[in-house]
Every structure is written in C-alpha cells, then in structure tokens.
Specification:
By secondary structure, the chain is an alpha/beta fold. It has 13 helices and 12 strands. The structure holds nicotinamide-adenine-dinucleotide (NAD).
C-alpha cells in the first residue's frame, strides 16, 4: 500500500492500486496541509470532488453503425464561483484524470484570483478517428448530456487537448437550442464571430512567457539567447515557442507526439508552424539539424524547459537526466511529486502548472465578462490586463515561497487553498 492510499479515504469508484493523476493531486494537497493553519479543518473538502457526472455519448457513425463513448464532467469545488475548466477529447481520458484536472482548475482559478471554482470534462475518444460530422454529433450529444449541470452561472467549459473554437461553437449552439436563448457565456474559447475574446487563443502561451520572464529575472537567466526546449507544439507550446523566439531566445528543441526536432542554433519557429500546418507534425522538418526519438528529448540541455503536452511526462525515471535551469509547466500535471523533489534538489526552478498556464483561464474570464456586458475590449487592453495579473500572481507566489521556504508549487497551493477554504468557511455548510 502506498502512502497516498494509506493516508486517504479513497472513493470506491477509483482503483486504489493505480490512482493516476488524482493520486498526484492528493500528494500535492498533503504538502500544503501543514501550512493552512486553522483552515486545515476544511481540507477534506479539497480531496473530494463536489459533483461527478458520467455520461454515455452515443452517435451514429457515417457508415450507419452506432458507437458509444464514455464522457465526464467533474465539478471539483464551487466555493468561490461557478465551475470553470476545459473539455478534453482523448482516447486515454479517465475519471481519475478528469478529477485531477478539475481540482487543478480550482487551485489555478484561486491562484490568479478569478472568481471561479474548478471543473473539467472529457470524452474517451480519439477524435482523429472521427469525420467532421461525427465530431459534431459527438460534441452536441455530450453537451446535451451535461447540460443539466453547465450554464453561464453554473459551470463554463472551454477548450483543452483536441478541442478548439469550432467545438466550443457547437457546444454553445447545442446549449442555446436546449435553453431557448443565446447564452454566449456558457463556454469560453469561442470564435470571435460568436462572442469570443481577442487574445484568447494565444493567452495560455502568452501567460507561460510572462511568468517565464519573471522567473528568468529571479534566476539571472537572460531571455535573449536563452536555450528553450518545448514538449508539445499545439496551442500552448506553439504560442510559447513563438513568444520566446520573438524575444530573442533560441528554441533549440521541439517535441510532439511523433518525435523531436533539434537545432542548437535555434529552430525557425514560423517555418516550423508552417510545416506542422501542412504535414500535421514536426517530423521531417527541413530546418532541423537532428531528429531524435521521443525519449531522447529529455537529454537535450537547455536553460528553460517547457512541458506543454500531457500530464506525468517528467517522472523519477527521466528527472535525473534533465539539465535545465527553469521549468515552465505549460501542460497540466506534467511533473510527478517524485520528479519534483529530484529537480528541486538539483536547484531547478519549477513554475507550476497552476500558475504558469493560468493565462488561458484568465482570458476566458475576460471573455465571460465581455459576453455578459456585450461590450468587447481591444487586444491591447486584454494583453495588458493578462500580463498584469500573471506578473502579480507570480510575485505573490514568489514572496510566499521565500517566507515559508517552500517550492513555488507549494507556495501557489498555499495561496490558492487558503482562498478556497476561506470562502468555504465563511459560507458555512448547507443546510
Ligand atoms: P493541443 O492539442 O493544442 O497540443 C498538444 C500538443 O502535444 C501537440 O503538439 C501534440 O502533438 C503534443 N503531444 C501529444 N501527445 C504527446 C506525447 N505523448 N509526447 C509529446 N507530445 C505530445 O493541446 P494544448 O491546448 O496545447 O494543451 C497542452 C497542455 O496544456 C495540456 O496539458 C492542457 O491541459 C494544458 N493547458 C491548455 C490550455 C489551453 O488554453 N489550451 C490552458 C491550460 C493548460
């Protein structure tokens, strides 16, 4: 029995032998609990999602057969506001994963102090196996199944891995049809033509860059000329790579689901984007000096490493091999607690996911506010507000980390969990 199993009253619907990402989250909560003072009385609240909805999502395939997919929406905590969090379409989605992602949203929203709780959704499907029509039917049926618990004042989904503006437009339309009114505020990350916000698509990568600049200043690393390695070249990794390259960094390695491209002189990022748009992956990029297999990525020495793909990528197995100064967690949950300790001992500064990738939800918040008032801001206003919120959050976390002599992850959890549990305490238990 592991220490996580021994210390926690685990629900019957999880596999105690393989807790997955939820087990990682529980260990993170254990690390913050000693710092919560009298609020630790409420900490069990954070170890149990408020509400879990599991749905069957049937669709008619183009060939006339009927396919069924497993779908989830988990609302982890709504003490500070309505649920907020993305929807992931991926063949490896599990309940444990969606639970952990929803809990990290609770922490993230409190860390940047936007007035939301935490939620997340997903469907266990490889969307690459579906036609556009099938994808639309899947999205609409899933939305109808979870429409009981979502809404502009209840829970507001957004894009995550393998979902995009188009998926959000179908979700909004399905919800509007069910409710009989427009309800643009039911999802964020929508197309601009449908109440989306300028700057939302780039927001997460931009936020990663902003906190990266702050972290680099603290560590004495110059952004111009810094060697940057990025895992994942999608929405988050692709934008972060562009912003670092634009600021004069050398993006020396990029990995996606097919492999790793390397150029010690700096990859030409606009050209790499063009290549990925044409070919579907970084493989075969003519501007690379070398192609490495996926695992060899972790041996590339860098100044800044940005995991921006999936969770549990940096583990006790590869952490000892990693040579970098700063890790910016663009992805959710990329580092296991064991790897966290190994890297901290090696003096690597880790800016945790719940802070580093909070730019996306911050601009989602702006989108929701704009939709309610039907008054839209300029991109300059949005980027300036985003930058201020991310800088302030980073510096508040930095101060707590210095005062308490803890990692930036534990410091972020201290700030965020204190906000969540203060709200819980002052609201009291119902009835
Ligand atoms: P995306 O689908 O746009 O891109 C994912 C990228 O990861 C792709 O380049 C893909 O090739 C690569 N990838 C997939 N599997 C891989 C593997 N096994 N090894 C290496 N690379 C792999 O997704 P995204 O929106 O950029 O999200 C990436 C991460 O960032 C996720 O953890 C997500 O939860 C997190 N995140 C996203 C946002 C957002 O606004 N999109 C906000 C916060 C956090």
């Amino acid at each position: 029995m592991t220490s996580v199993q021994a210390q926690h009253a685990l629900p019957s619907y999880l596999n105690a032998e393989d807790l997955g990402p939820w087990g990682v989250y529980l260990q993170q909560i254990d690390r913050v609990t000693p710092h919560l003072g009298s609020l630790s009385r409420w900490v069990e609240t954070l170890k149990r999602p408020k509400r879990i909805l599991t749905v069957d999502v049937p669709i008619e395939r183009d060939d006339g057969t009927i396919a069924h997919y497993e779908g989830y929406r988990v609302q982890h905590n709504m003490s500070r506001g309505p649920g907020k969090g993305g929807v992931r379409f991926h063949q490896d989605v599990t309940l444990s994963e969606v639970m952990a992602l929803s809990a990290w949203m609770t922490v993230k929203n409190a860390a940047v102090n936007v007035p939301y709780g935490g939620a997340k959704g997903g469907i266990r499907v490889d969307p690459k196996t579906l036609s556009r029509g099938e994808l639309q039917r899947l999205t609409r049926r899933y939305t109808s199944e979870i429409s009981l618990i979502i809404g502009p004042n209840k829970d507001i989904p957004a894009p995550d891995v393998n979902t995009n503006e188009q998926v959000m437009a179908w979700m909004m339309d399905s919800y509007a049809m069910i409710e009989g009114n427009l309800s643009t505020g039911v999802v964020t990350g929508k197309p601009i033509s449908l109440g989306g916000s300028l700057g939302r698509r780039e927001a997460t990568g931009r936020g990663v860059f902003v906190v990266g600049r702050e972290a680099a200043a603290k560590r004495g690393v110059a952004i111009a000329g810094a060697r940057v390695a990025v895992q994942g070249f999608g929405n988050v990794g692709g934008v972060a790579a562009t912003m670092f390259a634009d600021a004069g960094s050398k993006v020396i390695a990029v990995q996606d689901h097919t492999g790793t491209v390397v150029n010690q002189g700096g990859l030409d990022i606009p050209r790499l984007h063009k290549h990925v748009a044409e070919v579907g992956s970084v493989s075969g990029f003519p501007g690379a000096e070398a192609f490495l297999d996926r695992d060899a990525f972790w041996d590339v020495e860098s100044d800044i490493l940005i995991p921006a793909a999936l969770e549990q990528q940096i583990t006790a197995a590869n952490a000892p091999r990693i040579r970098t100064k700063i890790i910016l967690e663009g992805a959710n949950g990329p580092t296991t607690p064991e790897a966290d300790d190994i890297l901290t001992d090696k003096d690597v500064l880790i800016v945790p996911d719940v802070l580093a990738n909070a730019g996306g939800v911050t601009v989602s918040y702006f989108e929701w506010v704009q939709d309610f008032s039907s008054f839209f801001w300029t991109e300059e206003e949005i980027n300036a507000r985003l930058t201020r919120i991310m800088q302030d959050a980073f510096n508040a976390v930095w101060t707590v980390a210095q005062e308490k002599k803890v990692t930036l992850r534990t410091a972020t959890f201290i700030l965020a969990c204190t906000r969540v549990l203060q709200a819980r305490e002052v609201r009291g238990l119902y009835p």
